[in-house]
Amino acid sequence: MTEWLSVLFALLVFPGFGFLLACALAFQWIDRRVEARLQGRVGPPWFQPLADLIKLLAKEDVLPVGANEIACAALPMVSLAAVLTAALYIPVGGWVARTFEGDLIVVLFLLSIPALAYFLAGWLSVSVYSVVGGSRSLLQFFSYEVPFLMALSGPAILSGSWSISRIAAQQSQAVWLALVQPLGFLLALVGLIGKLKRSPFDIPKAKSEIVAGPLTEFSGRKLALWHLTMHIQMVVGIFLLVNLFLGGSDVGVTIPGVLIFGIKALFILLMLSVASALYARLRIDQLANIGWRVLAPLALAQMLATIWIGGG
Amino acid sequence: MLERIVRWARRKSPWILHFNSGGCNGCDIEILDLLTPRYDVERLGILKEASPRHADVLLCTGPVTRQSRDRLRRIYEQIPAPKWVVAVGSCSCSGGVFRDGYNVLGGIDQVLPVDVYVPGCPCRPEALIDGLARLLEMI
Ligand code: SF4
After folding, report:
1. Residue A208, strand partner residues
2. In the β-sheet with B57-61, what is the strand arrangement from edge to edge?
3. From the list B5, B42, B54, which residue is nearest A44 (CB)?
4. A191 and A201 Cβ atoms separated by less than 8 Å
């Protein structure tokens, strides 16, 4: 009985849905606010993401004639579920719901489900803009995913384990891996921006070119779920990087682990916001070029060096 | 209770869609002013959306011409309910300087139900913010 209760607690409250929802709304607000301040604006009040979410949930839900209704309803739910599941394997403040050897690979797979669902959503909602956006998102997926995976395999090879919590725990005894592999950390950050489709890599949903990309025809509840998926994906991605490169929540230090973890997560969030305020959107061919000519070789070199020096 | 929360959320997050049905572009530039650091309407929760499916408020500029009438109606129908219409500028309130043109039907209210009129040629951004604030009070 108590075991069931603890499982339910993990799924619904911490580190499950409730905690992630709160984090997603807070991160979203900080992100928008920082970007506005960098542009000399005031920015939205703190309850803005919550108001947006409730409003979208309460709005009418329409789909164009010819769109596949079942698929369009299922896709945002599937991707939200995948992202929430991924969050269960990621330690937060030294606490993790589930862990086993190899959960890093599972998390990476779960995190790439939304990208595929995003493409399918564009393809199935019969609009020129969403089809163009969908094909762009697939091309972008192929450009960032390979360097991202290779960059994330660096810490795993160095610590000789594919379990996120073990990688994080090893760093608290030694030095942060971001200092050992600064290049890998940078590549992982760039890959994360691509994964989250944030500016400067918001090519699939480029507002001034193709309206809203694959989500053009989505409204109301489905749109709310899509937005929620994106925001929670951002939280999960940031937590993942904190664990892999910044040492998670350094166990054994006097300051509580959750606090340290939060500060590190905010640091990465700040870097993402500054990047999106600083750079203009690339074209899709430029991104593919950078992804395959610059990022992938760098990531490969980093990986080989890691195996040669550290993994032995 | 639930209704009050929803009403609060609607009032705090109106996303706008902007459509020019035949004006001179003056009012459109004033609308874009709203997004600049000086007027920054994101502090009121207002975002400019590109897809009618995501929008709540339709900002219309310019008079309705015979050409644009059907497009205007179609865009209005694509916005999911609940939705509101704001007529921006003298043209869209009454037809303005184009009033007696052979191809002009008149103001936006000839085609759509308008909630708030913001006059001026072009209307000042302050007037526009005032109009939007009045609309939010109505919600
Ligand atoms: S009201 Fe004046 S500025 Fe605005 S569209 Fe009409 S003519 Fe142009």
Report:
1. none
2. B47-48, B15-20, B57-61, B84-88, B116-118
3. B42
4. no
Q: Please choose from B28, B29, B61 the residue to mutate so as to test ligand 1's pocket, defined by most ligand atoms within 8 A of CB.
A: B61
How confident is the model over A279-304, as pLDDT tens digits? Answer: 877 777 788 888 888 888 888 888 88
Residues from chain B contacting residue A44 (CB–CB below 8 Å): 42-43, 45
Beta-carbon contacts below 8 Å between A and B: 80
Number of independent structural domains in chain A: 1
Give ∠ CA A100-A102-A104 in degrees, rounded to 5.
105
On whether residue A21 sits in a domain, the answer given is: no
Q: Are A207 and A256 in contact (CB under 8 A)?
A: no
What is the extent of the structural domain holding A66? Answer: 62-311
ipTM for the complex?
0.80
- Nearest Cα residue to B86 out of B134, B121, B29: B134
Domain residue ranges in chain B: 13-104+114-138
CATH of domain B13-104+114-138: 3.40.50.12280
Q: Which of B13, B42, B43 is nearest residue A55 as measured by Cβ atoms?
A: B13
Q: pLDDT tens-digit profile of A232-243?
A: 888 888 888 888
The residue among B79, B124, B69 whose CA lies nearest residue A62 is B79
pLDDT at A257: 67
Q: Which strand (E) or helix (H) includes residue A137?
A: helix A128-159
pLDDT band at A253 (very low <50, low <70, confident <90, very high): low
A149 lies in some domain: yes
Strand partners, B20: B61
pLDDT attached to residue A251: 58
CB atoms A60 and B40 under 8 Å = no
A47 φ, ψ (degrees, to nearest 5): -90, 5
Q: Tell me the per-residue pLDDT of A186-201, one tens digit each, with 9 for 90 and over.
A: 888 888 888 888 777 7
- Prediction pTM value: 0.84
**Please, what is the end-to-end C-alpha distance for chain A in angstroms?**
47
- Given a cut of 60, whether residue A36 has pLDDT beyond it is yes
The answer to whether A245 and A181 are in contact (CB under 8 A) is yes
Q: Evaluate whether residue A9 is within a structural domain.
A: no
Q: Does some domain include residue A223?
A: yes
Q: In chain B, what is the straight-line distance between the N-terminal and C-terminal CA atoms, in Å?
A: 16
Q: Whose CA is nearest to atom 7 of ligand 1?
A: B24
* B102 min Cα distance to partner chain A (Å): 33
Q: Is the pLDDT of residue A252 over 60?
A: no
